[in-house]
Amino acid sequence: MLDFASPKREPTIRWNYAATRNAVTVARCILPPNPGVLLGASQLVLAVHMGEPFVMEYRLPGEDRLQSHLIEPGMMNVNPGNRPFFQAWENSPDILVIALDSRFAERVAVAAFERDCINDMPSIIGAKDNAALCFARLLDTEMAFERRGGTVISEAISAALTVHLVRRFCPETRPPLHGSGGLTPRQLRHVLDRIEDEIDGNLTTRALAFGTGLSGGHFMRAFKTSTGKTLHAYVIEQRIRRAQMLLADPDMPLAQIAYATGFSSQSHMNRHFGRLVGMTPGQFRRVIL
Protein backbone atom coordinates (compact mmCIF):
# COMPACT_ATOMS: atom_id res chain seq x y z
CA MET A 1 0.00 0.00 0.00
CA LEU A 2 1.48 3.34 -1.06
CA ASP A 3 1.55 6.33 1.26
CA PHE A 4 2.27 9.34 -0.91
CA ALA A 5 2.61 11.60 2.14
CA SER A 6 5.37 9.50 3.69
CA PRO A 7 8.89 10.97 3.51
CA LYS A 8 10.09 7.43 2.79
CA ARG A 9 9.55 7.14 -0.97
CA GLU A 10 8.89 3.84 -2.76
CA PRO A 11 12.32 3.07 -4.31
CA THR A 12 10.98 1.40 -7.48
CA ILE A 13 9.22 4.64 -8.49
CA ARG A 14 11.19 7.45 -10.16
CA TRP A 15 10.16 10.60 -8.31
CA ASN A 16 10.50 13.87 -10.20
CA TYR A 17 9.17 15.75 -7.21
CA ALA A 18 6.75 15.33 -4.30
CA ALA A 19 5.41 17.93 -1.89
CA THR A 20 3.08 17.58 1.10
CA ARG A 21 1.21 20.34 2.92
CA ASN A 22 -0.97 19.08 5.74
CA ALA A 23 -3.64 16.90 4.10
CA VAL A 24 -2.50 17.41 0.50
CA THR A 25 0.30 15.68 -1.42
CA VAL A 26 1.21 16.34 -5.06
CA ALA A 27 3.79 14.24 -6.91
CA ARG A 28 5.14 13.83 -10.42
CA CYS A 29 6.60 10.38 -10.91
CA ILE A 30 7.26 7.60 -13.41
CA LEU A 31 6.05 4.14 -12.50
CA PRO A 32 8.01 1.01 -13.42
CA PRO A 33 6.48 -1.69 -15.64
CA ASN A 34 4.04 -3.72 -13.58
CA PRO A 35 3.44 -7.42 -14.41
CA GLY A 36 0.39 -7.45 -12.12
CA VAL A 37 0.01 -6.78 -8.39
CA LEU A 38 -2.53 -5.42 -5.92
CA LEU A 39 -2.01 -1.66 -5.72
CA GLY A 40 -3.63 1.04 -3.65
CA ALA A 41 -2.83 3.96 -1.39
CA SER A 42 -3.82 5.15 2.06
CA GLN A 43 -5.12 8.42 0.57
CA LEU A 44 -7.88 9.34 -1.87
CA VAL A 45 -5.83 9.42 -5.08
CA LEU A 46 -6.37 11.16 -8.40
CA ALA A 47 -3.69 9.99 -10.86
CA VAL A 48 -3.49 11.89 -14.15
CA HIS A 49 -1.56 10.26 -17.00
CA MET A 50 0.89 12.71 -18.58
CA GLY A 51 2.91 10.50 -20.94
CA GLU A 52 2.47 8.20 -23.93
CA PRO A 53 -0.68 6.04 -24.22
CA PHE A 54 -0.54 2.61 -22.60
CA VAL A 55 -2.86 -0.32 -21.94
CA MET A 56 -3.79 -0.97 -18.34
CA GLU A 57 -5.27 -4.27 -17.19
CA TYR A 58 -7.19 -4.35 -13.92
CA ARG A 59 -9.77 -6.06 -11.75
CA LEU A 60 -11.95 -3.64 -9.85
CA PRO A 61 -12.33 -4.24 -6.09
CA GLY A 62 -14.70 -7.11 -5.42
CA GLU A 63 -14.75 -8.26 -9.06
CA ASP A 64 -13.13 -11.27 -10.74
CA ARG A 65 -13.41 -10.01 -14.34
CA LEU A 66 -10.11 -8.86 -15.88
CA GLN A 67 -10.61 -5.66 -17.88
CA SER A 68 -8.31 -3.51 -20.03
CA HIS A 69 -8.35 0.16 -20.93
CA LEU A 70 -6.24 2.32 -23.22
CA ILE A 71 -5.01 5.16 -21.00
CA GLU A 72 -4.29 8.31 -23.00
CA PRO A 73 -2.70 11.62 -21.90
CA GLY A 74 -5.03 13.60 -19.66
CA MET A 75 -7.05 10.55 -18.60
CA MET A 76 -7.22 9.87 -14.89
CA ASN A 77 -7.76 7.11 -12.37
CA VAL A 78 -9.53 7.82 -9.07
CA ASN A 79 -9.39 5.50 -6.08
CA PRO A 80 -10.49 6.04 -2.45
CA GLY A 81 -8.00 5.25 0.30
CA ASN A 82 -7.23 1.73 1.50
CA ARG A 83 -8.81 0.04 -1.50
CA PRO A 84 -6.12 -1.99 -3.31
CA PHE A 85 -7.02 -3.79 -6.53
CA PHE A 86 -5.20 -5.73 -9.24
CA GLN A 87 -3.40 -3.58 -11.83
CA ALA A 88 -0.91 -4.38 -14.60
CA TRP A 89 0.85 -2.55 -17.47
CA GLU A 90 3.96 -2.98 -19.62
CA ASN A 91 5.05 0.65 -20.08
CA SER A 92 6.45 3.17 -17.58
CA PRO A 93 3.53 5.58 -17.03
CA ASP A 94 4.33 9.22 -16.30
CA ILE A 95 1.71 10.45 -13.82
CA LEU A 96 0.68 13.49 -11.82
CA VAL A 97 -0.63 12.33 -8.45
CA ILE A 98 -2.98 14.26 -6.19
CA ALA A 99 -3.25 12.37 -2.89
CA LEU A 100 -5.69 13.67 -0.27
CA ASP A 101 -5.74 12.49 3.32
CA SER A 102 -8.81 10.29 3.74
CA ARG A 103 -10.03 12.08 6.87
CA PHE A 104 -9.72 15.45 5.11
CA ALA A 105 -11.79 14.12 2.19
CA GLU A 106 -14.41 12.71 4.58
CA ARG A 107 -14.73 16.04 6.43
CA VAL A 108 -15.18 17.87 3.13
CA ALA A 109 -17.82 15.36 2.00
CA VAL A 110 -19.77 15.71 5.25
CA ALA A 111 -19.65 19.52 5.04
CA ALA A 112 -20.78 19.52 1.39
CA PHE A 113 -23.27 16.64 1.31
CA GLU A 114 -24.10 16.10 5.00
CA ARG A 115 -22.79 12.56 4.88
CA ASP A 116 -19.51 10.73 4.38
CA CYS A 117 -19.86 9.51 0.79
CA ILE A 118 -16.16 8.96 0.02
CA ASN A 119 -16.54 5.23 0.69
CA ASP A 120 -19.41 5.16 -1.80
CA MET A 121 -17.16 6.41 -4.59
CA PRO A 122 -16.23 3.59 -6.98
CA SER A 123 -12.73 3.03 -8.30
CA ILE A 124 -12.52 4.86 -11.63
CA ILE A 125 -10.20 3.95 -14.52
CA GLY A 126 -9.45 6.12 -17.57
CA ALA A 127 -11.87 8.97 -16.89
CA LYS A 128 -11.89 12.19 -18.92
CA ASP A 129 -12.73 15.16 -16.72
CA ASN A 130 -11.63 18.66 -17.69
CA ALA A 131 -12.62 20.23 -14.37
CA ALA A 132 -10.66 17.66 -12.32
CA LEU A 133 -7.72 18.14 -14.68
CA CYS A 134 -7.82 21.92 -14.05
CA PHE A 135 -7.87 21.38 -10.28
CA ALA A 136 -4.93 18.96 -10.57
CA ARG A 137 -2.88 21.41 -12.62
CA LEU A 138 -3.66 24.25 -10.20
CA LEU A 139 -2.44 22.10 -7.31
CA ASP A 140 0.64 21.06 -9.27
CA THR A 141 1.56 24.71 -9.88
CA GLU A 142 0.80 25.83 -6.32
CA MET A 143 2.62 22.98 -4.56
CA ALA A 144 5.75 23.28 -6.70
CA PHE A 145 6.67 26.58 -5.04
CA GLU A 146 6.92 27.77 -1.44
CA ARG A 147 4.72 30.86 -1.31
CA ARG A 148 2.91 32.63 1.49
CA GLY A 149 -0.60 31.29 1.94
CA GLY A 150 0.23 28.20 -0.09
CA THR A 151 -1.21 25.75 2.44
CA VAL A 152 -4.53 27.60 2.60
CA ILE A 153 -4.83 27.77 -1.19
CA SER A 154 -3.80 24.13 -1.63
CA GLU A 155 -6.40 22.88 0.85
CA ALA A 156 -9.09 25.10 -0.69
CA ILE A 157 -8.38 23.72 -4.17
CA SER A 158 -8.30 20.19 -2.75
CA ALA A 159 -11.65 20.70 -1.03
CA ALA A 160 -13.15 21.90 -4.32
CA LEU A 161 -11.63 18.91 -6.11
CA THR A 162 -13.09 16.52 -3.52
CA VAL A 163 -16.57 18.00 -3.91
CA HIS A 164 -16.27 17.76 -7.69
CA LEU A 165 -15.17 14.10 -7.59
CA VAL A 166 -18.02 13.18 -5.26
CA ARG A 167 -20.54 14.98 -7.48
CA ARG A 168 -19.15 13.32 -10.58
CA PHE A 169 -18.59 9.77 -9.43
CA CYS A 170 -20.68 8.98 -6.34
CA PRO A 171 -24.00 7.35 -7.18
CA GLU A 172 -26.04 9.67 -4.95
CA THR A 173 -24.80 13.02 -3.71
CA ARG A 174 -27.92 15.09 -3.21
CA PRO A 175 -27.88 16.37 0.38
CA PRO A 176 -30.61 14.98 2.56
CA LEU A 177 -33.39 17.25 3.76
CA HIS A 178 -33.38 17.12 7.55
CA GLY A 179 -36.95 18.38 7.38
CA SER A 180 -37.83 15.03 5.80
CA GLY A 181 -36.21 12.94 8.51
CA GLY A 182 -32.42 13.37 8.35
CA LEU A 183 -30.04 14.72 10.97
CA THR A 184 -29.04 18.37 10.85
CA PRO A 185 -25.44 19.06 9.75
CA ARG A 186 -24.50 19.85 13.35
CA GLN A 187 -26.05 16.64 14.67
CA LEU A 188 -24.36 14.56 11.97
CA ARG A 189 -20.94 16.08 12.62
CA HIS A 190 -21.36 15.41 16.34
CA VAL A 191 -22.26 11.77 15.77
CA LEU A 192 -19.52 11.07 13.20
CA ASP A 193 -16.87 12.73 15.40
CA ARG A 194 -17.97 10.70 18.41
CA ILE A 195 -17.86 7.46 16.43
CA GLU A 196 -14.33 8.26 15.28
CA ASP A 197 -13.18 9.19 18.80
CA GLU A 198 -14.72 6.13 20.47
CA ILE A 199 -14.29 3.52 17.75
CA ASP A 200 -12.36 1.28 20.15
CA GLY A 201 -15.22 1.21 22.67
CA ASN A 202 -18.79 0.05 22.98
CA LEU A 203 -20.71 2.55 20.85
CA THR A 204 -24.37 2.33 21.82
CA THR A 205 -27.36 3.73 19.99
CA ARG A 206 -28.62 5.25 23.23
CA ALA A 207 -25.39 7.21 23.85
CA LEU A 208 -25.18 8.50 20.28
CA ALA A 209 -28.86 9.41 20.18
CA PHE A 210 -28.57 11.28 23.49
CA GLY A 211 -26.06 13.69 21.93
CA THR A 212 -28.59 14.61 19.23
CA GLY A 213 -31.56 15.06 21.51
CA LEU A 214 -33.53 12.38 19.64
CA SER A 215 -35.07 9.12 20.78
CA GLY A 216 -33.26 5.94 19.82
CA GLY A 217 -35.69 4.96 17.07
CA HIS A 218 -35.91 8.46 15.63
CA PHE A 219 -32.11 8.74 15.68
CA MET A 220 -31.63 5.42 13.84
CA ARG A 221 -34.02 6.47 11.06
CA ALA A 222 -32.47 9.93 10.79
CA PHE A 223 -28.94 8.52 10.68
CA LYS A 224 -29.83 6.22 7.78
CA THR A 225 -31.52 9.08 5.93
CA SER A 226 -28.40 11.24 6.32
CA THR A 227 -25.75 8.64 5.54
CA GLY A 228 -27.57 6.09 3.39
CA LYS A 229 -26.38 3.40 5.83
CA THR A 230 -27.58 1.88 9.06
CA LEU A 231 -25.66 2.90 12.18
CA HIS A 232 -24.33 -0.65 12.56
CA ALA A 233 -23.06 -0.79 8.96
CA TYR A 234 -21.39 2.61 9.27
CA VAL A 235 -19.66 1.74 12.56
CA ILE A 236 -18.39 -1.57 11.16
CA GLU A 237 -16.95 0.25 8.12
CA GLN A 238 -15.14 2.71 10.39
CA ARG A 239 -13.78 -0.10 12.56
CA ILE A 240 -12.42 -1.82 9.46
CA ARG A 241 -10.89 1.43 8.22
CA ARG A 242 -9.12 1.90 11.56
CA ALA A 243 -7.95 -1.73 11.42
CA GLN A 244 -6.46 -1.09 7.96
CA MET A 245 -4.43 1.78 9.42
CA LEU A 246 -3.21 -0.31 12.38
CA LEU A 247 -2.20 -3.18 10.10
CA ALA A 248 0.59 -0.93 8.80
CA ASP A 249 2.38 -1.69 12.10
CA PRO A 250 4.01 -5.09 11.47
CA ASP A 251 4.55 -5.69 15.21
CA MET A 252 0.94 -5.24 16.31
CA PRO A 253 -0.81 -8.62 16.73
CA LEU A 254 -4.10 -9.12 14.92
CA ALA A 255 -5.91 -9.86 18.19
CA GLN A 256 -4.72 -6.54 19.61
CA ILE A 257 -5.90 -4.73 16.47
CA ALA A 258 -9.31 -6.38 16.83
CA TYR A 259 -9.75 -5.11 20.38
CA ALA A 260 -8.29 -1.69 19.52
CA THR A 261 -10.99 -1.24 16.89
CA GLY A 262 -13.91 -2.31 19.05
CA PHE A 263 -14.42 -5.88 17.79
CA SER A 264 -15.28 -8.54 20.35
CA SER A 265 -12.67 -10.95 18.97
CA GLN A 266 -10.16 -11.47 16.18
CA SER A 267 -12.57 -13.81 14.36
CA HIS A 268 -15.27 -11.11 14.55
CA MET A 269 -12.89 -8.66 12.88
CA ASN A 270 -11.76 -11.24 10.31
CA ARG A 271 -15.34 -11.94 9.23
CA HIS A 272 -16.21 -8.30 8.59
CA PHE A 273 -12.78 -7.51 7.12
CA GLY A 274 -13.12 -10.27 4.53
CA ARG A 275 -16.64 -9.16 3.64
CA LEU A 276 -15.73 -5.48 3.15
CA VAL A 277 -12.15 -5.64 1.88
CA GLY A 278 -12.17 -8.94 0.01
CA MET A 279 -9.16 -10.42 1.81
CA THR A 280 -8.10 -11.41 5.31
CA PRO A 281 -6.29 -8.92 7.59
CA GLY A 282 -3.11 -10.99 7.20
CA GLN A 283 -3.33 -10.82 3.40
CA PHE A 284 -3.99 -7.06 3.57
CA ARG A 285 -0.92 -6.58 5.78
CA ARG A 286 1.26 -8.45 3.30
CA VAL A 287 -0.02 -6.19 0.49
CA ILE A 288 0.76 -2.92 2.29
CA LEU A 289 4.12 -3.87 3.85
TrEMBL record:
Domain of life of the source: Bacteria
Any Pfam family matching the protein: HTH_18
SUPFAM superfamilies, alphabetized: Homeodomain-like
The HTH araC/xylS-type domain, residue ranges: 189-287
Keywords: DNA-binding, Transcription, Transcription regulation
GO molecular function, one term: DNA-binding transcription factor activity
Protein known as: AraC family transcriptional regulator
